[in-house]
Amino acid sequence: MADSLPALAFLGAGSMGGAILRGVVASGIAIDGGITATNRSSDSAAALAGLPGVTSIALEGQPDGNLDAAASAGVVIVGVKPAMVPDLLREIAPQLVPETIIVSVAAGVTLQTFADALGADARVIRSMPNTPATVGKAVTGLAVGASVTADDLAVVRRLFETVGAVIEVPESQIDALSTISGSGPAYVFLLIEELTRAAIGMGFAEADARLMAEQTFIGATALLDASGEEPAELRRRVTSPKGTTERAIAVLQNAHLDRTFADAAAAALVRAKELAAGI
Q: 185, 168 in Cβ contact below 8 A?
């Protein structure tokens, strides 16, 4: 595993880009040339200005900030809103050297969009991180462009491993990945909401109900992580024959949770394709 990264430029260090940036800084990994981050407003830039090794630029005060950042970086992370990506790419293209690695965190923007703006030889990797990046527990999908080398991919893997786990997928699976790991935290939060409501319905105070539901999910996932066991095996150990959990699990299975989750993921995938098509 690489013990350093090349100079990084975060163009649009908003919620997701900012989370990745903070993860890199918190990891303590050496950055050969430092980190530059750009944001449109002075307030957003100020929020990152105090991080060690980070040069934070407000574009409203330094309009050429993206150009300056891209020119000096080995890896450029494109984190602006998807609709702004083509204009940004055209802006920075003249400043990029052939060895620059371009990483997209813009949902729905294809590798072809990058190739159209930067040329077919551009080394582009499309990423799909999720919101637990903010606490170093992300799942990030990576899809590589045709000109990306093994060394390029290793660098970008190391970058995203500072905020969690990394999965390499073909670009055709990026949208599907987003329906599981991208949308998945919302599914978990929904389950916690509903378990909390069930506890309130059984007479518990809201604070106690929330504590029970939230800590149960936190504890169960920590146990899964620490044990190395399959989820089905851990479920079996909790589900005593003819016991209370067995009866509750039967109700959940009779509600066809398998089909419900499959349908939910399929619906999210349809919408992802619509968004990519501009619908």
A: no
Beta carbons of 121 and 98 less than 8 angstroms apart: yes
Q: How far, in Å, CA of 196 to CA of 211, rounded?
A: 8
* Residues of each annotated binding site: 11-16, 66
Contact 159, 130 (CB under 8 A): no
Is pLDDT above 60 for 2? no
Contacts of 138 (CB under 8 A, 6+ apart): 19, 23, 129, 130, 131, 132, 160, 163, 164, 165
Which residues contribute to the annotated binding site for NADPH?
66
The full set of domains in the chain, from first to last, is 4-174 (3.40.50.720), 184-275 (1.10.3730.10)
Cite the annotated binding site for NADP(+) by residue number: 11-16
Residue 101 vs residues 45, 182, 249: alpha-carbon distances, Å? 23, 23, 48
With a CB cutoff of 8 Å and minimum separation 6, the contacts of 11 are 38, 66, 69, 70, 76, 77, 78, 79, 80, 88, 92
| DSSP code, position 255 | T
Beta strands in 40-174 (DSSP E): 54-58, 75-78, 101-104, 123-128, 138-144, 164-168
For the stretch 77-101, pLDDT in tens is: 999 988 899 999 999 999 899 999 9
Give which of 104, 34, 106 is closest to 72, Cα–Cα: 34
Model pLDDT, residue 92: 95
- The rounded percent of the chain whose pLDDT value lies above 90 is 80
